[in-house]
Design a protein that fits this description.
2 copies of one chain form a homodimer. Chain A is mainly α and about 140 residues long. Chain A has a domain of about 100 residues: Orthogonal Bundle (Arc Repressor Mutant, subunit A), CATH 1.10.10.10. In chain A, about 55% of the residues lie in helices and about 5% in strands. Chain A is built from 6 helices and 2 strands. A two-stranded antiparallel sheet of chain A has the order 1-2. The longest helix of chain A has 21 residues. The radius of gyration of chain A is 19 Å and the shape is elongated. Chains A and B meet through helix 1, helix 2, helix 5 and helix 6 of A and helix 1, helix 2, helix 5 and helix 6 of B. The structure holds a DNA duplex (30 and 30 nucleotides). Chains A, B: GO terms for molecular function: DNA-binding transcription factor activity.
Chain lengths: ~140, ~140
Amino acid sequence: MKSSHKLSDAVHILTYIELLPNDDLSSAAIARSVESNPSLIRRLMSQLTQAGLLTTQAGKATPKLSRPAATISLRDVLHAIDPAPQLLSIDDKTNPQCLVGGNIQQTLNDVYEEVQTAAEAKMASISLQSIIDELLVHAANKPTD
Amino acid sequence: MKSSHKLSDAVHILTYIELLPNDDLSSAAIARSVESNPSLIRRLMSQLTQAGLLTTQAGKATPKLSRPAATISLRDVLHAIDPAPQLLSIDDKTNPQCLVGGNIQQTLNDVYEEVQTAAEAKMASISLQSIIDELLVHAANKPTD
DNA sequence: ACACATGTTACTTTAAAAATAACAGGATTG
DNA sequence: CAATCCTGTTATTTTTAAAGTAACATGTGT
């Protein structure tokens, strides 16, 4: 499969809006930064808006974070773009007649849930603000700016 | 993308070999349990063998775990089939001219590594034996067996 | 009215995984 | 030693979910 980077793009969008509030915040401008297309950006922004992370206005390029960046976690962003994220995926086509094939799915489901919970706990501890702070450190440390 | 379930299949294979040692352990038989094809099974088994988790013999259908199932972790299996697993994926095509686009990749790389480490720590704590034990509980609790 | 924006739906392209095929060799049996 | 079944590996085709693109109804401000 082609691995999804929707989460990365969503974080990118939120960071852009928070860090460059005086720039052009149209979907076209953000798309130029993401090197993607405006339609994709609008779809992601729509999901972020529906999740209550972003405030937008139809017709006006004036998106704003709905809450302080310090109170938005990476997990919040993930759940905004995917209500039931699965980092690990189960093979749902196994032989039900077999002891292993017939029980491995439920078993792995339990196991993967543990891993998912651990990963999401870490994600819940990482705020958009900390990501922005780190990005600025990276930018400051660049040789040629 | 199509999300990979190689990890699930690899666990399935190891579980099958450990739990049904007196059954036919040919790639064709295992493929019937996974509902996949023998070639795929052989490729996965080859990776597991190279990682030192499985002992196989060309020409003979007699695979065996190289170590006790209690000493094989889910993380070991993951690394056997993918030396550099990435649960979250970065968008590697962003505008380098932009403050955000030019620094988001390194930033997310750091952030995702934290999440990856948390997930892998949990995976390291889950043994193949515990997965097998849980599978047997599931099998025992099935209404119609 | 016009220019430009969002929000949403539908369609096309793409790339990674899975499926399949093929075959060189090892093992076992009669 | 021929026949048969197996493994291990490579190459090719098919599938499918994400990304890319297009289109358009509708909101906004001059």
